[in-house]
Amino acid sequence: MFIELILVGIFIGTMSGFFGIGGGMILVPVLLAIGFDIKDAIGISIIQMVFSSIYGSYLNYRKGSLIVGEGIFVGLGGFVGGYIGGLVTKGIPDSVLQMLFLGLLLFALFRLYFSAHHEDDSQTKSLNKGVLFAIGLMIGIFSITLGVGGSIILTPILVGLLHYPIKKAVSAGLFFVVFSSVAGMISRLSTGTIDFNNGLIVAVASLVGVFGGIWLKDHVTSKNHKTALMALYLLALGMLVKKMFF
């Protein structure tokens, strides 16, 4: 199991860096497939997201692809929402969590598929700071409850509604995960519902993958990046459906 978790961590870290996701949308189904129950899988996922999102955001900032700006207000909302989400997870049945996760993946895939393509920031829209905080709050509650960082919801919103270029949206999404995952981990620790030992194995291993994933992101076209992101959502969807119904 130790070697499996290291390999999983490296793989998830690569996905996190390349796609700007916390990694939970892939990690949770993978952990379910190798024998963890849904709540332990969510706890491990949250720990991994803390490590990968902080390191990945640092790398993106150094490379100039992360513009902090408005992301702070979305992130603060995500922090509050992530804390609330971590508290409510314990009382939700596993079957309900799985159905919510399925709906989340379907929404993200739909929103991303029908979004227009933008190469630069010229058409990027802006929102009121209070609205940004509220968006972050709702995403934080919903995502941490399901063990995902929130970028799976935020990135399609940034691309499809606010006209962000895909790579800027991906960097902003990973930055959001810093806030929601740290808050989620704090609240999960307060309820005792987290597997720290296995979580740290996956999290430390993921740092290697994050570095490689961000390097790869900077060397592909925006169009190919979007296509790859949609393929990732389909993969996670297939794994979850297999687990739930087969």
In short:
This protein is an all-alpha fold. It has helices spanning 2-19, 24-33, 38-63, 71-88, 94-113, 129-145, 151-160, 166-191, 196-217, 222-245. The longest helix has 26 residues, at 38-63.
Contiguous helical run count: 10
Tell me, what's the shape?
globular
Report the end-to-end length measured between terminal Cα atoms: 24 Å
Mean pLDDT, as a whole number? 83
Please write the string of helix (H) and strand (E) elements: HHHHHHHHHH
Strand content: under 5%
Low-confidence stretches: none
Question: How much helix is in the residues?
Answer: over 70%
Class of secondary structure makeup:
mainly alpha
Any idea how many domains?
A: 1
Give a count of the beta strands, DSSP E runs of length 2 or more: 0
What's the alpha carbon Rg, rounded to whole Å? 16 Å
Verbal overview:
There is one protein chain. With 246 residues, the protein is an all-alpha fold. The protein has one domain (2-245). It has helices at residues 2-19, 24-33, 38-63, 71-88, 94-113, 129-145, 151-160, 166-191, 196-217, 222-245. Helix 2 (24-33) packs parallel to helix 10. The two termini are 24 Å apart.
Core attributes:
mainly alpha, 10 helices, 246 residues
List the helices and strands and how they pair.
Layout: H1 2-19, H2 24-33, H3 38-63, H4 71-88, H5 94-113, H6 129-145, H7 151-160, H8 166-191, H9 196-217, H10 222-245
Helix pairs in contact: 1-3, 1-9, 2-3, 2-10, 3-8, 3-9, 4-6, 4-8, 5-7, 5-10, 6-8, 7-8
